[in-house]
Every structure is written in C-alpha cells, then in structure tokens.
Amino acid sequence: MFKIVLFFFSISLFLTNAQNFNTTLISNYNPHPQAGYSNLWGYTDSQGREYALLGTTTGTSIISLVNPANPVEVAFIPAPNSIWRELKVYGHYAYVCTDVTGAGLQIIDLSQLPDTAVLAATQTTYFNNGHDLLIEDGWLYVVGSEGGGGLQIFDLTNPVNPVRTAYFNGSGYIHDIYVWNDSVIAACGNSQNYQIIDVTNKYAPFKVSQSAVLPGIYAHSGWMTEDKRYFYGTEEFNRRDITVWDLQDRTSWDLVVPQFGLEENVIAHNLYIIGDYAHVSYYEAGYVAIDVRNPAFPVIAGRFDTYPDGNGPNFDGAWGVFPFFESGNIILSDMTYGLYVIRFNPPSGYSNQAPRINHSTTQYLTNTGNVTLTANIIDDSNLSDIKMRYRTVINGTASNWNLLSPSGNNGNNYNFIVPGQQHLTKVEYYFFAQDDSSAITTSPAGGTLSNPPATLHSYTVIIAGTPQLLTYLPVENEITIAKNGRVNFSASAQDTSQLTLTLSWRRNGAIVVANNTAFTYISSALSQAPRTDTVTLVVSNGFNSVSKTWLIHVENVLTSVEEVEIVNDYKLFQNHPNPFNPSTKITFSIPEASEVTLTVYNMQGEKVEILENGFLQPGLHSYSFDAKNLVSGVYFYEIRTPFYKEMQKMILLK
Asked: What pTM, to 2 d.p., does this model score?
C-alpha cells in the first residue's frame, strides 16, 4: 500500500464577506498627498499624548493624535527620497531606516513634542540602507541591509550612538523579524522559510532551527501570540496569505494552519498580535482583525478598507498598522491616502464557521496497489459527516463517481483508501465535510456531496519503462575542432511506456538546451585552449532516462574571426537609473558564447517581460526596459546561462 500523509495546501479557508464590519472610522489625514506613504509606528509621550510617526517618500511626518478626530502634523523630518521607510521607537527616540537611498539610520529626538521634533543623529557607520528594524529591551535589530542582508544587533545604552555588537549572516537575506527575550524569528524572504536565531549572547548569535520551505511564497514578516507559542507569518506573494506555526519546541516547526486569509485576490503585508487579536494591513483590502484565541482555527473578526479604489494583488493601499496604543485607537498607513485612525470593536460572538480541509496532492504514483489519501479536517464545533468521492479517467473516458468513508483517523487526519489502478489511469477526487450546524466544505472548494466542484484533486498511476535512443549524430565519440569551431548534434528516441520524452543537452554537466532533438556546440574564440569539453544527451520520460556523452577536444588554433571585446567574468550590473521612471538600462557581461535568458519579475514572482532568450556571443550586452504600463514598486531582473545565474532588484517610482 502506498501512503500519502501530507497536508500543506489548504482549501476553503476564506471569508466571503468583503464589507467593513466591527470597525469605526475616527479620521483620515493626508498631510503630503504628492509624496505617497510607507510604514508607520506609534509614540506616546510622558504625558500620555499619542502620536503617529508616518513614513513618506520624502521623510517622516510626526502627527499629533491628541484629538484623534482631527490629527495635526507637528513636525517633519526630511530624508532622501524613498518609497520605503521603516520606523520604531525607544524611549523618546525614533529610529528610521530605508531600503534604497543610502540614508543610513536616522535617530529623531521626540522629547520636545508636542512643539517639535529634531533629527538627533544620522549613523552610516555600519550600514547605508536597511529594510526593517525592531527594538526589544534596549537592543536594536536591523535586517535587510546591504552586504548580505543579515541580522545586525546594536546596543542602545547611548540611544543617539548605537554600537553594533554582532552581525549574523547565517540565515542569508532576512526581510523582517520578530524578537522576544533570547530569540529572533527571521522571515527569510526568497528562501521561502522562517528561522529562529538565538540571541542570548548579543555578541554571538546562532541559528536554532528553520521551518519547512513553502514553495512559491515570500517569507515576509510575522508576530507571535501572547503566550509565545504560535507564530503567524505573512508571505506577501499571495499564495497562502497567512500561515500559523506551533513553536512549543523551538527546535521544530509544526505547521498547524497551512493557509488562511481573505477570499479576495489581495496581498497580506504586516501583522501584529496584541491580546486575542491579530491586526493585519492587507494592501488593497485595508485593515483586517483576526481572532487568534484558537490558533488552529483563526477567524476574521473585523475589517476596514482604506483603499476602495482597487481589490487585487497589487502593492497599493494599506502598508502598515499599529495596534498598541493604550487608548485602543488603531492607526493605519495607506500608500495613497495617508493616515487612518480607526477603532476595532471586538464582536461578542461568532456564527458557526464551516469546516476547513487541508490536503496535499501528488502528481503521479508508481504503484498499482491501494493508495491511502489523508485529509486534515478541523472545525470550530463538531463534524457530523466526512466523505471522499473519486472516479477514474482512462483514455479520456471518466467512470461513475465512487463514495468512500474514512478508514480511520489520527486526530484531525482522516484516511481514505482508494483501490489500486493500472498504468496511465488518472484518479480524480474531492473531500466533503459537514458539521453539526449543517455548514459544509469541499476540497477543492465549490461543491457538495452530490455535486463535484469545478476543479478536482487528481493523481495518475504511471509504471514507467526505460527510453530507447534510436539514432544520434555525430557517430564518433570524440571530435576535434578549432578554438572557434562548432559541432552539430542531433538524436531520435522512443519510449516503451507511452510517456512523453524530453531530450536535454548538457555541456560539461550543465543543461544548455532543455528540450530539443538538436544542439549546436560552439567554442568561443576567447576561451582557454587546448581543452576537452563534454556534451551529454539525456533522454528522459520523467521517471527513467538514458544518456550519451561525446568528448570535444578544442585545439589552440583559430579560423578567421572578428576582433571582439574581451570580457573575463559573468556579471549582472545594477540597472541605471535606479529608481527609474519609466525606462532603465540593464547591462550584463558573459565571457563566452552561451544561451542567455534575461527576465524581469514583479514582487509576486510573476514574469513581467523576457528581454532576451537566445544565444549570445561573449562581451557586454545592454537592454532597455520600458515600464510605462506598470505600477510603482519593486521589480527583479535575472540573468540565466547554463553556468551562471544572478538576480538584482530595481525600483519603479512614478
């Protein structure tokens, strides 16, 4: 019996009501409408007066909330232009960093409020830019700075002159952090995981553990529940929105909620937890409150939309939220409309929530025996009915539906046994759950027990044979060519198990042509000789493969060749200008002739444009990228060759 016991992908976890509820708008204040806004933080002076510290493109706006219905800017601290600005407070000092402009760390003295605030110091000793910072118990933690983006720790004994005690880069680039006592939780961005770093010794941090990698996400930020057991992470790429991890044992990460969020196609950004509620800034959806009293079953408890202009996966709308004022007022920063002051009115109770089903699919099985499929099913009350329906598809013809009850369960994990199937049989299926209040859920979503959802889970049974290489050229196993020569290769093959074949060509072990029956080897006139390269053909049906290798002996002689610019290294240069509007130039160098792909991505990891996808000669190559039809924000550009890969970040600022 082949057993699948994975449940990392969640279905049917989303709230359908997009209306504002359980919130009250107190005021909206837009002091710099031409500038645009980023994050914010709160400050309370010795007299109990509350202030919003609001990041703008041109500096920091300090806003009095003495009358929250009528906010007033009382000071403004200019800074180099940046669409990012991160702010935190320690004592009567605010600490501000930005990700792009090289402004270092601004330290703002707030002691003269409500009259004014002044820039006390700007420190560039340790870093010129940083993505985020957090302060805990007299220690400043900075992440995402240049030079690797690791964790920097500063002693704030002298608040105007922080002294760095450690720089930790053992977790790679860190986008954001949460700190409590002797532990830092690092959100590691493109590494797609979260990590715990022990900072008991502020001079010698070390990594304790890391979560499982969640493919497709960007590990953006997060916060712990008040008991310091559960971590709520936000992933910003709109794949899972929010995940919940049990950290009772700091050496392991238990994913108790694989996915949670809004039904709308919007992006979760920053999240903070105070008491029984998480407070989230949700870009185009605005403010969202989540009841976290049952960490395994979070519930949407309130909403307020700061950006009614849109409702999509764009980087507009609510950037930051600050829920920690003693008054109970919550402040939000909207990238377009500035400061919002609202109240969250916790509900007295909830209507019944539908069950939730988590299940991970597998694409294929290499086994004709019975298969056990496992679904993780939870509810806020009691489950009254659990079923699974499946059918087989052979040569495009679907069978009737078959109904299964659980064969057993381990807590919330319910097992279903599907009879074994033959080679090339596709099995389509879905799960059904109903609770004692007749609320139902299917996985995938959208069905009932008698009516299947529009999309289905599936797997295919494949018993793969071994491909056969029928013909190939050159016939010789070894070929000798001049320093700037070339060799044409071709092949044909067939499969013994009716599967699709791919023919991939490798040069010295690296894939140069991914799926083609032919390949041309070209030796650069600038490359070292004499030498011997290998060309290998790999024929695969996705399960088994055969290969054929040739030796290419390159002699130190030339045929007629034009003079070319000599480039010794692979290099992807920073685009110029940066930030840009609307166009910029991207330049790279390659030391030898090669297949090259140059691609631009947005913050969601989606391809925006492919600037190059072909075979290039050695030298410098430049491309113009026109972003006139794109929105402001962060974009990435990446060069890929068989021997080299590098990515850079650029900013479109309109």
From this structure: 0.66
